Amino acid sequence: MRPFDQIERLERAEVLDGPAAAIRTRVQRLLSDRRVKDALHGVWLGHPLHSALVHVTLGSFVSASLIDLVGGQRRYSTGLIATGLLLTPPTVAAGWADWSSAHPDQQRVGLVHAATNAVAITCYAGALRRRVRGRSGRLLSLAGAAVSSVGATLGGHLSYHLSLGANHSDRVRDLAPKGWQPLGLLADLPDGQPVRRTTGEVPVFVLRRGQQVVVLADQCPHLAGPLSGGEVVGTGGDARVVCPWHGSEFRLDDGCVVHGPATAAVPRFEARVVDGALEARIVASAGAPTA
Ligand code: FES
Predict the structure, then answer these.
(1) I want to staple 48 with a disulfide (CB 3.0 to 4.6 A). Which of 159, 165, 191, 221 is the partner?
(2) Is the CB of residue 261 below 6 angstroms from any atom belonging to ligand 1?
(3) Is residue 167 part of a domain?
(4) Among 125, 119, 135, which residue's Cα sits nearest to residue 84?
(5) Is 230 contained in some domain?
(6) For the segment 182-195, what is each residue's pLDDT rounded down to a tens digit?
(7) Which 3 state secondary structure label does DSSP give 239?
(8) Closest approach atom of ligand 1 to CA 262
(9) Which residue range or ranges hold the Rieske domain (predicted)?
(10) CB of 245 closer than 6 A to ligand 1?
């Protein structure tokens, strides 16, 4: 059995679903203020906040343990442990926010990831406490590194294997056929109701509003939910589509994220009507159509 087969078994451990549901309800209640939730997801950053913070937090802890391992100056490792502990609350809060909008297999692994990290943090807090009292705390620091390496492995599995935090619509710009592509007759589109069409192999969200048509990738950047199954809310420049899976909201005008958990914009297509036929072409980046 390969070492990572154990983690894949964890993905299917339904025994974790009960605790996950109870914790999820609690986390969602704590994050009922959408501004706080968006801030923790990293909507303001355009990038998941947890992954940005965790490198500094974990890096501080592991660096401290390495100094302790080679017998380096204790004041440096103490400073690094204190830095890691200082960054722990926002890192943990951002992690729980992302976890609360994850798929069940991701939540199972995430739960063990969080529990493992809680043990590691307790070790580092114990090491710091001992140092404040004039003791070494070296063993606790080394134990913290050993446990946190397990937590980090699970975190890596969540990011790289289960793609939590990845941009799930990023490939659309590469996969969509270049140039203007036919999307059927304008008259066949219902007014005000999003529908799914395809251009090449790429599904697209199409919304007709009178004579205007919005075309976006039909793949939510958060976890690839189908935006064409979502609700359209707001009016004018504030009109948004709400992802049916976890409620991310994207502005129809430009595909930008208004509310998370998504942190990346949904790829946008230019649209035009030629002799009653709708055509669209992918926009390579903000405001730049492809050739
Ligand atoms: S898939 Fe999660 S918000 Fe869209």
Answers:
(1) 165
(2) yes
(3) no
(4) 125
(5) yes
(6) 999 999 999 999 99
(7) coil
(8) 3
(9) 181-280
(10) yes
